[in-house]
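QUALITY CONTROL LOG
STEP: pairwise intake check
CHECKER ROLE: data steward
CRITERIA: each record must contain a sequence immediately followed by its structure tokens, with no blank fields

ENTRY 1 OF 2
RESULT FIELD BELOW
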Amino acid sequence: MKLEDIGFYTLSNNRVKQTCLHSPMWRTEILLTDKCNFKCPYCRGVKEELRGDMPIEKVKYVIDIWSKTGLKNIRFSGGEPTLYKGLIEVVKYAKIKGVERIAISTNGSASINLYKKLIEAGVNDISVSLDACCSTFGEKMCGGIKGMWKNVVNNIKELSKLTYVTLGMVFTEETANTVKEVIIFGDSLGVADIRIISAAQSNIMLKQLNEIPKQILSRHPILKYRVDNFTKSKNVRGLSSDDYHKCALVIDDSAIAGNYHFPCIIYLREGGKHIGEIGPDMRRERYEWFKNHNVQYDKICIKNCLDVCVAYNHMYWYYNEGAGLKERLCYDNDFCVLSKTGLIETLKNNDTLYNGVFLDFNGIKELNEKLGYDKTNDTLKDVFTSYKFRRSDIVARYFSGDEFIILAKHNIIELLDRFEKHCFSKNMNFKYKILYDIVTVQDIDKSINVR
């Protein structure tokens, strides 16, 4: 199954193939405030050090950092983000910075006029919590505010006509027997998709799902994915011993709250330790966490890792250590990122004599920071495309930092000279040095170990 078939637009096989230290920051979620006007029984809030409103300038600072590496998707959450006074301002700022998808996670209680203003400002994804199908229990979830549940339902109906709207449904032991009714009711509101999950406190297997009408499942790919998993006795939460022991999502997907960045929003909400403080070194810190952290030994990950994250990390394993290595060799027309194993397999399984070098590129990181990932990457592709290198002609392996292995069927020195001249013509500082040639598998081992 392709990741894009699951239904989350942020997940795709192509994203997995690109994931590395210098790939785009695909997604970030910023917890703007811990304030909320509801009292959902399963919500436990956040740690003391993360409470309060994040200053607007700090939110913009995070957007600035990630937009330099090609930030594509952002989600503002809380608490209840519509209680954050600067919400419209930070939404507009994200749009100015070129973020393609701007989402908010809300309880749906704000005025419809505010939601419309947010859409005008740039919001094109609204996730609304809806855990009940009747006003009696619905108003209990709304903190006992009379008439609020009806207001939420009306907002969902109206917003579904205006933009992409999904429902988040959390079920506890008390409400597990209402799953079918709530899903059918949610579908009737005209939403794009429905996400079901059990509360972290109970993590129960949801029943009645085999009774969901097929026409409803056909309209909602995320719901269908979850229902299929449940019917196979696979819960939304939790790792099995067979699952990949690393979390590749942390490389290009981040959660921000207070002064810190966390592995993911689940890790944050479950009280896990942050990776580090907000700042320009966040990406490298996240990459180091990925390399050194075994999620199979992490109690939060073992219990709470979501099914879609497990699927993503399995796909990362597939393309970096599994049978998908050969496919990854050809995933991009011009420039491929491979693991050490992938390079060795290339040498072993191809009769072609490659020209190979281990290079240190000076300036790639600075170009990313100055121009943004997309423009720097376009320059790389432009050079390779200009000289008509075919898919199988060149492969490369990123190291942390600006070090590469390059294998090619052409004269590499000539290629790099052209590349340097091309960058110079665009007033872009670019230099490289050849550390040594690569002609054997042992040379690849040497280049890996020299760091």
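ENTRY 2 OF 2
RESULT FIELD BELOW
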Amino acid sequence: MSVHAEPSAGHFRLIGELDLSHRVQLKEALKPLESVDLAVVDVSQVTYLDSTVLGCLIGLRKAMVLNGKAGLVHIIGASSHIRRLFEVTGLVKIFDLDGNVPQISFQSTDIFKGSRSPPITSDTIS
């Protein structure tokens, strides 16, 4: 898994397979977005995600609202499989999956890398 972020602009790209083994690192990586009104999460390069990621995104939105922000989270680039997860769980009601967000250029460096196995360890965080 890789994460590219421009937290001050609220832009975040997830790459690869995302599951329970990435929960702590994903929550930490999302933390800077808690202080923005609009977070844009690009999942176009995600090959797998589970409910752990959905929980992290719900937590992000909740933290944004608790910090007095608008709590808008746009999910862009969702495959049909990922879109289906949001639909089945009812999360399409709180996350925008329509991609009504301008094109985003990610030029930042990796925050951390890993894969589904082995899990990310603290020494893989850049």
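INTAKE CHECK: passed for both entries
DESCRIPTIVE NOTE, ENTRY 2: Confidence is low (pLDDT under 50) at residues 102-126.
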